[in-house]
């Protein structure tokens, strides 16, 4: 993640930060308490006991997030091994437990990434750890259609497990309102074809498909429809603060535990602002491992930048590909070459053939409906000139005038130069929490 402690902001800059929630004094105890007192659900041990057949013949699937989400799967706040222990203590053999990475349409995790993410004790057991593959149609089960016509194609290993457990982080999500809960299944475990409506252009064009909103949110509703059909016996969701410290653990019923987590999340991620700004500075956060993921920060910045204003962003795109997939690159270039209005007309046309990951470029375009592409300045230490040529917007270094320097130094110089160009009366804000804080203009 980009270090911004050396950032020098012009006098009068508004620093927008999320309220600071109380973090867990004893994370291990918070996890244990949540498992012992589930929300809207029996305890996990009771659920296991209610399954037909002998416990030693049961199989269990624990769904986990990939490395783009800072879910505490190890350490004092680790939520994974306590679940494995409860399963084994209830008689489920370790060899019958599958830890399944909900990759959605993204790449699978490497062995080294998994070992870095997960509790080391897990690898001392005969527990299987596998990645979901949305392209492997032989391992997808068709469970029907949603009310909107989506094929419900779900990972077969999950579908065929006797005990189904979801885990994840609940944070603001710029399409589905909030992550966690049902999103472990949709899009986490679905087939690529199941994304065509869920992430289709008409659904994302609806203004209710936005951060911190579940009511009437078409993305949320579609994901929940699929999750209800696939089923989940138990979930464990967490909330974190800006330092990634545990602020809440919500275990139990698929919907009730998730709703409790979202209510808690709203109490400290919404940032109420009284004006919009000429210049918005932001960063890609932990999630911004590539340009695809950095879109989340761009969408939140678009909420509070004035029409025709400027957005300056730095992001640490450390993924194996700092931009994203070939399909994502293709759609980015379409947006860059055709412009915001033509891009929307194209993907909303009934003759348009859906391209996976077009949705993320559509979300970037929310920003370009407010500011022109040449008012967006981006910097990633991992980008070469060829990457910058693909992405809409301009190089931050062109504005900063620096040949070398840290992202914070580039951002500091760029905003100083822009202020000199536009005049002292302009308004500037720094979104200290990047994609995690949700600014609400009232």
Automatic annotation (TrEMBL):
It comes from the Bacteria. InterPro entries: LarA-like (IPR048068), LarA-like_C (IPR043166), LarA-like_N (IPR018657), LarA_C (IPR048520), Ni_dep_LarA (IPR047926). Residues 1-11 have a biased composition (Basic and acidic residues). GO terms for molecular function: lactate racemase activity. Residues 1-21 are annotated as: Disordered. Residues 6-208 form the LarA-like N-terminal domain. Residues 277-369 form the Lactate racemase C-terminal domain. This is Nickel-dependent lactate racemase. It comes from Spirochaeta isovalerica. The lineage of its organism: Bacteria, Pseudomonadati, Spirochaetota, Spirochaetia, Spirochaetales.
